[in-house]
Specification:
16 strands, single chain, 24% helix, 2 domains, three-stranded antiparallel β-sheet, seven-stranded antiparallel β-sheet, alpha+beta, 333 residues
């Protein structure tokens, strides 16, 4: 009888041990699964922070070529120098990263130009109507060319000039229609429509005048042009100071006089349109000349000025590469 009771007791203890072991195992499995899920979810959440801006801002510098804090705009970073590692492939072409913006978008410019084009006043006569009171007839009486980049609501004011502008400039139309439509679908999906800050600037202004936004209006769109503040901020030449006046003279050009074009990856020895109207005219746009100084270009006459498109890339893109021309940044899908 005692043996039977002993056997029953041992069987009961064994059952309790098995049940306890199984319960512990189940508890550990559930706990591990929950922990793994939490780790995976946490990792996925953190990946969102590993965007292009996060990657690039790990390499901010204070000397030499590279990415610098923009001392004029809080939260913004700009590439400076003769050849910083800011090459990026976009639409299977070389572009350069101008800046990392406050909103984590990347402002980029095409390395090569699209060729030479007039800014406005082409044969389409886009602004040839009486609704454009800011855009007046040219000296030849041929069209209503003017230096307003885009149509505006209400009145457009540039310096002492004001009036209505109901149509975009011809170059704006070309870039945001014909050129935009030529891009790959993948490239189109990577573009972030953005505010472009457009400032009227004076002739013979100092670098400080060109960098300070005093008479700005915002245009929201896909593709624009370089702002002169981009040009001056890109120079890493110690002789390029806020008091420099890099205006082209009427004659006797001397390349060495224009300090801000040195140690500047944006200089390419060509006439390049900017997005800045001359604030003492309705017809002149400021450009970067082949000498590296700032000059006037007539919107309807100047047809030897090159076009380098500028656009913004979405904040959530991710990059691989080192930014050199041999190993440019590429966008990871």
């Amino acid at each position: 009888m005692k043996r039977k009771i002993g056997r029953r007791k041992r069987k009961k203890q064994k059952k309790i041990l098995i049940i306890s072991s199984l319960s512990l195992l189940l508890f550990l499995c559930v706990g591990y699964a929950a922990f793994s899920t939490q780790v995976i979810m946490s990792a996925k959440g953190n990946i969102k922070d590993y965007n292009a801006a996060w990657q690039l801002l790990k390499n901010v510098v204070t000397q030499g070529d590279g990415l610098y804090e923009d001392i004029y705009e809080d939260g913004r970073y700009v590439y400076k120098g003769l050849n910083p590692n800011n090459y990026i492939t976009f639409n299977n072409e070389f572009w350069r990263i101008i800046s990392v913006e406050k909103d984590n978008t990347l402002k980029i410019i095409k390395e090569d130009t699209l060729g030479t084009m007039k800014y406005d006043g082409t044969s389409t006569d886009n602004r040839y109507n009486s609704n454009n009171t800011y855009c007046t007839l040219s000296s030849s009486g041929a069209n209503y060319s003017c230096n307003a980049w885009s149509a505006v609501n209400g009145t457009f004011t540039n310096g002492g000039f004001s009036g209505t502008v109901t149509e975009d400039s011809d170059l704006n139309i070309y870039l945001n229609n014909t050129y935009y439509n030529s891009l790959s679908n993948e490239a189109k999906n990577q573009i972030q429509p953005h505010n472009f800050q457009i400032d009227g600037k004076a002739e013979n202004g100092t670098v400080n005048d060109y960098i300070t936004n005093t008479n700005k209006y915002l245009w929201y769109g896909k593709i624009g042009l370089m702002d002169l503040s981009d040009w001056f901020k890109a120079s890493n030449n110690s002789s390029c100071t806020i008091s420099n006046i890099d205006w082209c003279p009427m004659s006797n050009y001397n390349r060495e006089d224009y300090e801000c074009s040195y140690e500047n990856y944006l200089y390419n020895n060509l006439h390049i349109w900017s997005m800045n109207p001359n604030n003492k005219s309705v017809r002149y746009i400021l450009l970067i000349s082949t000498y590296g100084c700032i000059a006037n270009g007539s919107t309807e006459v100047s047809d030897a000025v090159h076009v380098r498109p500028v656009l913004y890339l979405k904040a959530d893109i991710k990059l691989k590469g080192t930014g050199t021309k041999q190993d440019p940044f590429t966008i990871i899908n």
